[in-house]
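Q: Is it fine to ask for two folds in a single conversation?
A: Yes, each is treated on its own. Send the first.
Q: Here.
A: Result:
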Amino acid sequence: MSEVAKLTIGDQTIELPVVIGTEGEKAIDISVLRQKTGVITLDPGFANTGSCTSAITFMDGEQGILRYRGIPVQELAEKSTFVETAYLLINGDLPTRNQLSRFSELLNEHSLVHEDMHLFFNNFPRSAHPMGILSSMVNALRSFYPTLEGLTEKEEINITLTRLLSKVRTMAAMAYKMSRGHAVVYPRPNLSYCANFLNMMFDSPVKPYKMDEDLLRALNVFWILHADHEQNCSTAAVRLVGSARVNLYAAISAGIAALWGPLHGGANQKVIEMLEMIQENGGDATPFIKKAKDRNDPFRLMGFGHRVYKTYDPRAKIMKEMCDKVLRVLNLHDPLLDIAKKLEEVAVEDPYFKDHNLYPNVDFYSGIVLRAMGIPTNMFTVMFAIGRLPGWIAQWKEGASDPNWKLYRPRQIYIGRTDSRFVPIDERG
């Protein structure tokens, strides 16, 4: 017999089915709750609400587990490439050699951006944040690349997915080049996805970019670690907007806008700004830890804690190791890394941080890696967006293929005025 939960409201008791996932997670299905009782649930921030079932990503916040399609993220970071991981997330399985080759060819084939889009880029203010530009331009892609004729629905979706995955990377590099007043560097068919991005970012007629395999590997790992993370804020935004049956570009544009926030994708930029502030104040992290523990002080340690993880973020461990490796390979000494390590060392031994499950997350070290690679701070969140793109696409695709995908329509508990009369303007005090 299937497990059920019994809910009693007044003198009425109803049974609600318990849904059990493949990893043993349990959820109470309340889809008939309002219909049977007239009552809804209230869950600010949706921390206890499952909005869907999904076969893409599994997280266990207590154990520090993250798996894409069942494969631990540590294995993918060690053995896979970003393109291979993107294929896994979007299509459900690791690609064969032929499938990977064809996928890579499609990414190169669709990497160019329509020349007329340059006019859009040129008309953004130079001070515009790259995330605002990227969100706008992704939405605009629909105008330049409308519905494809003469293809099956599956063929059209596959081309649209690869087109988006490829062009977002190109547009990100374009935005950077144009913000500096430099000529745009076009993608090259003989370079891989990640290599093309680095070349488009940093190549110039004056100083041709020299590809470094260690930096290339670091970029692959960075994007793999950010490729998906279950139903986070931006992914939920993609699913919510997608549930209205908008085109993929509009749904992804919404995800980019959500990711922009400092409590989400913008956190890696905020970590660097925090470390720079500590450096400007002598480099001693102790006073800032004290400030973070003071409830009356608005200061907070960026890069610590997570809504799901109650232990060390598994991605943070990998990023910390990559940080050391990149700086060693480049023979660089970044004083911010010294401050970050000291900050972590003090914080993880402090009872306050232990009791509140405040451990470093992936944002804590990722910004230092990006700095070492030459990525400017205002591009950090864009880098996150490129990495998260396969996850957004996979989540949208999964929802679109579900015949029971309903329009997202949360309810509310109204706490405003009750029925009131209209007061003519002359009578208003």
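Q: Second one now.
A: Result:
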Amino acid sequence: MRFIQTFELLPFLDTVVSLTAAFILGVLIGAERQYRQRTAGLRTTALVALGAAAFVDLAMRLEGASGAIRVIAYVVSGIGFLGAGVIMKEGMNVRGLNTAATLWCSAAVGACAGADMVAEAALITVFVIAGNTLLRPLVNAINRIPLNEQSSEATYEVVVTTDPLSLAVVREALVEHLEAAQYPVSDITTTERGDDAVEVIAKLISTAVDRKELDNVVERLELLPAVKHATWESSTAD
């Protein structure tokens, strides 16, 4: 068998280290995405990192650094098609950009691991997880800064995540809580987030919005047993 003739123990162990590191680091990144019920969760992120590592490691074994560089270029462009699959446009809003960026970074983690740069792969993983967690409070704080209503027209949405079986109940509760707070709903849509999560998005009719009141509405919604997560978002036309 040609396998017996070409098999080398040390290069094989090197491949084991590279793929194992890529898999573990991909799982760490994906765990945060899975916890937040994003479209690309733990399995997808881990497989992206593992696949990138496998291709780069294969090129390293066959052609050395020059071959790995060519494969990395294809990985960078190829992962763009995968990321495009999680980006969705809903009216004026675009969702999934952060998830696509996370997949892109996961491929970078895998490419580093496949190129035997495990320490660099771990460092990228730390930055990716920090970007998806530590920056979230800062983003929320910036989003809640009062807008200049005279210079920009703001659109407000309340987003609630639930399971498919509780969709009707949560949707009705969302409308009731907003109407009780004197915030009529102009439109309400639903978006699937994996097999066991659905987002209910209520768009408010253009009106003066008290952010503290919206915070209170969100807090009351999160107390409902069927609600996994609730938040509100604002965007401007300019």
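Q: Anything structural to flag on that second result?
A: Two points. The first strand starts at residue 88 and ends at 90. The chain has a mean pLDDT of 83.
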